[in-house]
Specification:
Helix content: 25-40%
Strand order of the largest sheet: 3-2-4-5-7-6-12
Shape: globular
Number of helices: 13
Distance between the termini: 53 Å
Largest sheet: 7 strands, mixed
Length: about 400
């Protein structure tokens, strides 16, 4: 029988990483991620985890260390958020460019200035084009489960791309929830074998990593990354299906509620998905044809699956917990608009920007968002392409 314990999101990450039997951990503390590496440090100090814990002076160094370690064939882990992820920016592209299967937890937190330690998606969304796979968890159980899936995906020989597991700061990182854990043997069988890298650094077989590529070769390197990301679109559903079998918990690239006949569907990332689903359930009881979809995989963007799932809607509301300054709308909104641009049946798509700096989205506001979508469906026009919810006028 599976072990069930109460864990916060940060603790869930640490327990899953321990069960994944990582070899090297490097990280720098930053709120609200710190508990992850503190807990892993305790596991190493207590002898519960046989791993090298590297204490570094910055997030830039943390990612540099685990990237290099991954190239030796080690299974590696790091964690960060907000300004820490911003400091890693130079290395993010190097990690994906050398095809290092690093797994990193991102405890989503707003970017400064002004300084804010609470949740939004501006940090990970800023890295959406860096060549990393991005998974977003809705609750603490998903946080725990996604760590295993992240290693399964990242270390796949057809993929070999770094992967972020994103969890909303404080809303998930510091919230205690019921977590059903995998048995160690089940986890071990699910994970890929070591070494995790097919061409590990070796004194016996010298090789060049991160070489200089001039105009005659650089383009080909980038196309290999693009090919790997496209292959990840096939690998991710299989990894989720396999995890569903070993855990008994159903996983797909998104979690949908009542979308089959819905006129209005919200598409959200992270913990907001639970709020929207709960409110949609209430509105359904009142006779409103609304549904919700929580996206678990953001990069690679599951275009084909989303097109099939959302094509019956009259209105799609993209829930962006970030601002894309100077753009038409937020990142999720722009992806969804692009997806349906050439569709024969094109739903009306509007952007909802909410929750910046950890501001709560209340059930009343969620209800108003659905009602706004129903008004669009009725009138056939979008009064505000980007609607800001929960902000002072």
């Amino acid at each position: 029988m599976a072990k069930v314990i109460g864990l916060t999101g940060d603790e869930a990450v640490a327990y899953a990483v321990k069960q994944c039997d990582v070899d090297v951990i490097a990280a720098y503390p930053i709120t609200p991620q710190t508990v992850i590496v503190e807990t892993l440090g305790e596991f190493v100090a207590n002898g519960e985890l046989d791993a090298e814990m590297v204490h570094v002076e910055s997030e830039h160094s943390a990612l540099s260390v685990v990237t290099a370690a991954a190239l030796t064939g080690a299974r590696v882990f790091t964690a960060t958020c907000s300004q820490g992820l911003a400091l890693m920016f130079e290395i993010l592209y190097i990690t994906s460019g050398v095809r290092a299967p690093v797994v990193m937890a991102v405890a989503n937190r707003a970017l400064s200035a002004p300084i804010n330690i609470h949740a939004d998606h501006s940090d990970s969304m800023g890295a959406r084009d860096s060549g990393w796979i991005q998974l977003y968890a809705e609750n603490v159980q998903e946080v725990y489960d996604m760590i295993f899936m992240a290693y399964k995906i990242a270390e796949n020989r057809d993929v070999l791309l770094p992967t972020m597991v994103c969890l909303d700061g404080f809303t998930l990182t510091h919230t205690l929830e019921r977590v059903e854990m995998l048995d160690d043997e089940v986890a071990k069988k699910y994970l890929p074998p070591k070494p995790t890298y097919p061409y590990p650094i070796s004194a016996e077989k010298p090789a060049t990593y991160g070489s200089l590529a001039l105009p005659d070769y650089y383009f080909e390197f980038k196309m290999q990354q693009q090919d790997a990301m496209n292959k990840a679109k096939e690998v991710i559903p299989k990894a989720m299906e396999e995890f569903s079998k070993v855990s008994g918990r159903e996983y797909d690239q998104f979690k949908a509620y009542a979308i089959e006949d819905a006129d209005v569907i919200t598409v959200a990332l992270g913990s907001t998905g639970g709020t929207m689903r709960s409110v949609a359930r209430e509105l359904r009881k009142q006779g409103y044809k609304v549904g919700s979809l929580t996206l678990r995989v953001y990069r690679p963007f599951p275009a084909e699956a989303l097109m099939e799932a959302l094509s019956g809607a009259k209105v799609i509301l993209a829930m962006d917990r970030t601002l894309s300054f100077g753009a038409i709308g937020g990142p999720l909104f722009e992806d969804l608009r692009t997806l349906f641009y050439d569709a024969e049946k094109r739903p009306l798509i509007a952007d909802i920007v909410y929750g910046l700096g950890g501001r709560d989205l209340t059930p009343a506001e969620a209800k108003a968002i659905f009602k706004y979508g129903l008004e669009i469906a009725k009138s056939g026009r979008i009064p505000e392409l980007v609607k800001y919810v929960g902000v002072r006028e």
